[in-house]
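Practice problem: predict the structure.
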Amino acid sequence: MDQLPVLHFGTLVAVDDPVTEGPDLGSKEIGRAQDLFLMKEREFGIVSGTGFFRFVKGYAVMETEFMDSANLRAVLKLNVTVKHN
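Answer:
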């Protein structure tokens, strides 16, 4: 089996890491990461937000551009499409 055990059906993973504007540790925090970084590309639905993005609907595709497992850091690329009423 070539999948990581963490990707098996029924496995729960909790992630709440800071997402910053850039790769520098001092970059402004713009959100919290709550999905798996071990997958190269993943898509997820957006059903709401906060502030200006309250009540939005849409989807996002997140790609892992670089992973530094030893230091628990990653560079991610996000493509987000939302509809705001």
